[in-house]
Amino acid sequence: MKKIILLSLLSLCLASCSSSGGSEGGGTVAGDLRSQVLKDVQNKYGSSIKILSDSSQNYYNYSLYGVIGNNKMVSYGFRTSKMDNEGIATYNGEFVKVSNGQKYPLRATADFGKAHIDMVYNNDKYMSGRISGNAFIFDQGNGTGFFYGPKAQEIGGYWTKKGVLLDSNYVFGGKR
User: Fold this and answer.
1) 3-state secondary structure of 88
2) Tally of domains within the chain
């Protein structure tokens, strides 16, 4: 029953959101969705989750990313239900190293027509991937990302360098 109510709320809210994604604060559609995402994450994963996407004033409205315990990476939110199949979007955010919380600037460019995404983090590290539906898979390492919110307003995901232990696990998020 709870899932049906949540899906109904999500459908109504996403239908009424503007392309700007709303604004943070009480009473806004985006702010209400963000609160619901936070509650869902805490219900699903408990209080052991360390939410990294809320570490600054630049809150995400449709998604959260973080770590459970010492090593389980989480990207959670309201995934985009209708993806564009043309156009280019640029996202700015952060890439966070799981082992020590070190944050690196992130810039991503999604080319929806070519179903391709390029990401640069720490100003010189490059990754690329394939977009499929509302998700993308990296060509390098082992990682997955997702598009969140109406018109793919946000991205989030996780990435692990193959063959390397925990110190090469990352979570990330970005906004248009």
Assistant:
1) strand
2) 1
Spatial distance between the Cα atoms of 127 and 117, rounded to a whole number of angstroms: 8
- pLDDT tens per residue, range 58-105: 578 888 887 776 667 888 888 999 998 999 999 999 988 887 778 889
From residue 142, alpha-carbon distances to 41, 107, 157 in Å are 23, 19, 11
Please give the Cα distance from 119 to 53 (Å, whole number).
18
Write out the H or E segment, with its range, that includes residue 33: helix 29-45
End-to-end CA distance of the chain: 33
Instruction: Give the range of the structural domain holding residue 96, as residue numbers without chain letter.
Output: 2-175
What lies within 8 Å, CB to CB, of 171 at 6+ separation is 52, 65, 66, 67, 73, 74, 75, 95, 96, 98, 156, 157, 158
Query: What does the pLDDT look like over 21-38, one tens digit per residue?
Result: 222 223 344 556 666 766
CATH number, domain at 144? 2.40.160.90
CB atoms within 10 A of CB 67: 22
